[in-house]
User: What shape does this take?
Amino acid sequence: MRESKGLLLVEDNPNDAELIVKVLVKHNRTEDIVVVRDGVEALEYLCRQGRYSDRPSENPAVILMDIKMPKVDGLNVLRQIKTDPELRLIPVVMLTSSRQENDLANAYKLGANAYVVKPVDFQTFQNTINSLSLFWGEINEAPPSYVRRNPGA
Assistant: This one.
């Protein structure tokens, strides 16, 4: 089995976040899971700002992100990721409860790599998370991480 790669989970629902992390840990799908609770925190993490200014320069192999979040929603975070030359290659999977056609269309227009509706059934939810992490964390070849340059360096 190949070595798992880092994953950034952007999820404002603490119950969903806890369940997702438990499934990932149970199946040994990733060694490095970072959970952030809203779009602002996601951008701070990715851009190495605020409390994340000291995080390692390697970007996650994949981002699992909800759409409906406080402060900055997932579609706006996706827009910022996909327009940033240092972040745009990171695969982003929209993991959401939204079945709205507008959300689906906008996610793909903005560059989402996948759009997955969270299953309501507990076992199906676990199977979905396990399948996502297997593909994006182990099977898929992640793009190379780029080291952020210090402005003025």
